[in-house]
Write a structure and sequence with these properties.
Layout (H helix, E strand, L loop, with lengths): L13 H17 L2 E8 L7 H7 L5 E6 L4 E5 L1 H4 L14 E5 L7 H11 L5 E5 L6 H11 L4 E3 L1 H9 L3 H24 L6 H14 L5 E6 L21 E10 L2 E2 L2 E6 L5 H19 L7 H14 L9 E3 L23 E4 L2 E3 L6 E3 L2 E5 L4 E3 L10
Parallel strand pairs: 1-5, 3-4, 5-6
Antiparallel strand pairs: 1-2, 2-3, 7-8, 8-9, 8-10, 11-12, 12-15, 13-14, 15-16
Helix pairs in contact: 4-5, 7-8, 9-10
């Protein structure tokens, strides 16, 4: 598999969306699934399944039959907006309809449509955490428990390997994250509020055409807690600004995690940075096709412990249309890396949960013979 750079792409071409739908239908046919109910939310962890087949990042529910047009039920204000046409001619194969009364219509509309199809085979759902109890109960009442199957694995299987277009968008997201880091290096100083820092980051990524993003932050001393919003902390001399800078250009995320020194790291943080470096460099050397994800995780965890620190967390995650794109880099992930997979790897070295800690990392593309950092930065020296 050769991954080429694609210049100038701002979103996935419609031709690629229709190819995806065709592959999904092949999987449906093999499993006697007549229709899928695909659910998504407008958030960083549950948007991807819907966007994968529609280019629309507003969540909603899609009824995907084995043949014919798709139907996307979405908030009325979005469904009637001409902005939908900016993602390309998706109306050629998707009926975009408003759901219900603008608040509670999914069970009546999406499940009602499935009921009207008089399905005799299986009905699959994709994205169960985004469906909701009322919709699932309505689906049970419409077709019965015996014919409902969780078909989310079909989407995860296809989404795991990124196309050239997807990787091009992720490269752009990684470049935005790099540039944001450079801005922060010149911007932060002791005494600065995390509200000021957070606002500057959001301004930067939005001005660089990322329609949404995730910024984890901790600006209190050398702590590394995973707040997704500012809490009034103030940057301290000797401490760090812990960030996960995560823009999503064209809907595709890339992540640059880093414990950024405010000025000079304290002695305790320097020891943690050394432990991080020991685990990180080992893990990075193992990123290649055929390696078990669990082996990478266990090796990094052991090396960090040998260096006098601990890491009770996962060391990263797949990344793409969602921030956590189907799997985590953890000890239980017993499957192999393959060319075309993308992941964010960021092992941490901490004293204890909610204590001092240090982390850094990058977004990677697994290639035919190894892994490529999508970031231009190198955090492995000077700390």
């Amino acid at each position: 598999m050769t991954i080429a750079s694609v210049e100038g792409i701002t979103q996935i071409p419609v031709s690629e969306l229709t190819d995806r739908i065709a592959k999904i239908r092949e999987e449906m046919k093999a499993r006697d699934i007549e229709v899928l109910l695909v659910a998504g939310l407008q958030d960083i962890f549950n948007r991807g399944h819907v966007r994968y087949i529609s280019n629309l990042g507003g969540g909603g529910m899609i009824v995907l039959p084995a043949e014919g047009r798709l139907t996307h039920f979405i908030h009325p204000a979005i469904a009637h907006s001409p902005k939908i046409d900016k993602v390309g001619p998706i109306r050629e194969f998707i009926d975009v309809r408003p759901f219900g009364d603008g608040a509670y219509g999914f069970s009546n509309d999406s499940v009602g449509l499935i009921r009207s199809m008089n399905v005799s085979g299986k009905v699959g759902y994709v994205g169960g955490s985004a469906i909701g109890v009322s919709v699932y109960d309505a689906l049970r009442n419409a077709v019965g428990d015996a014919r409902i199957v969780d078909a989310s694995d079909i989407f995860w299987k296809l989404r795991a390997i990124k196309s050239e277009n997807e990787i091009a968008l992720m490269r752009r997201s990684a470049a935005i994250a790099d540039d944001c880091y450079d801005m922060l290096r010149d911007f932060i100083r002791p005494g600065m509020s995390d509200y000021t820092v957070y606002g500057e980051i959001k301004k930067f990524v939005f001005e660089h055409q990322s329609p949404y993003s995730l910024e984890v932050i901790d600006a209190e001393g050398g702590f590394m807690n995973f707040d997704r919003y500012p809490t009034g902390d103030v940057l301290e001399s000797g401490g760090t600004l812990f960030m996960e800078i995560t823009p999503a250009y064209g809907g595709y995320y890339a992540q640059l995690p880093v414990s950024m020194p405010v000025d000079e790291l304290s002695p305790s943080l320097k020891r943690l940075a050394a432990a991080w470096h020991a685990g990180f460099t080992l893990g990075e050397s193992m990123l290649r096709p055929g390696t078990l994800v669990s082996d990478v995780s266990k090796a990094m965890r052991a090396r960090i412990a040998e260096a006098g620190a601990s890491n009770p967390f996962s060391h990263g995650h797949a990344i793409g249309l969602d921030v956590s794109d189907g799997w985590v880099l953890g000890d239980q992930a017993e499957f192999e890396l393959r060319p075309g997979m993308t992941l964010a790897m960021h092992p941490a070295a901490i004293t204890e949960i909610a204590g001092e800690g240090f982390t850094a990392g990058y977004t990677y593309l697994i290639t035919e013979d190894g892994a490529e950092r999508l970031s231009r930065h190198d955090f492995s020296f000077g700390w």
